[in-house]
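Sat 14:20. Reprocessing the chain from the morning session after the first attempt stalled halfway. Input below, unchanged.
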Amino acid sequence: MTVTTPRGFRAAGVAAGLKTSGNADVALVVNDGPDAGIAGVFTANRVKAAPVLWTQQVVRGGVVRAVVLNSGGANACTGPAGFQDTHATAEHTAVALTSVSPRLMLGAGEVAVCSTGLIGERLPMDKLLPGVRAAIRGLGRDGGTAAAEAIMTTDTRPKTTVTQGSGWTVGGMAKGAGMLAPAMATMLCVLTTDAVAGREALDAALRAATRVTFDRIDSDGCMSTNDTVLLLASGASGIEPTGAELTAAVTAACHDLAQQLIADAEGATKQIAIDVVGAAGEDDAVEVGRSVARNNLVKTALFGNDPNWGRILAAVGTTAAAFEPDGVDVAVNGIWVCRSGAAAEDRAKVDLTGRDVSIRIDLHAGSSAATIWTNDLSHAYVHENSAYSS
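Finished this time. Tokens:
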């Protein structure tokens, strides 16, 4: 159930001393297959971390043989020196890998770099580079779980997934537990497949998948500087799926990981699905769902087990979506507490004692729909984001 389930991939995760906890903090994923296809989707934040800027260039090159990832430091807002640290990491990884696997013969431009952690501080390269060498020594077909653990920050558990095709496979790992907002989350994600797929097919599949999965989870309305989702193809299965088949498998893997991310959101006690139906267009449905997902009054009400539909309706009203205020219906956990923009069934009927919460909003303005996934805001969220820097 990891990035090494598809054929042609090895991985490792080691402790290099970047984290004061001593936990694993450097991961490496290597593609040994006959192909080295790559696609990537990155944060839309204008403030991009050095590894994002580097890896965007690498992805444009079209060939990636290795991805080196670290937790314990974001290498964001570190200026030219931080970018040089990223370049040095890629170069060091390429040289060290080539020395032990000469047939790879890779250069720095075939190494993607991802970082996560505190913004604004340089990485301790005297620890990171030896960590890379240790990860290379530890590479194996069974190293996917260790790699997933090494990229965790405030996560409470690693996130991995596998989706099976017809003779080919998609695997993946991700990290993220806060700042989950488009695009993407405060997340790193590496997806692997042993399918035969060209650059255009990989890019189309990944963008289609992230649009309806990672781009629709929204924990706290914040956008990270380091978000990176990579899809690597080894071609080791020898099977070339259709574009639709590849997109379906990648979407399934991304959906599974996205749900794991929102389930592990910082301090969350509720996992909330906001279904918007009857919208004039999909963009309207997404805008309405996102407005409710980001509304702190809604999120704190749900933390307190209060089905406060007035707050939901008020959030809907802040959007530019097409609808008539006196034509909107709202249900919470199956109880239609609002009909035609006014009180309907008794809100006391709504049971919010469980973790899963469903909100359904019918705009009665068309036939389009979309789902946004979010969580509540709790005392634990405030503590985790105020008691110490992360």
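The first strand starts at residue 9 and ends at 14.
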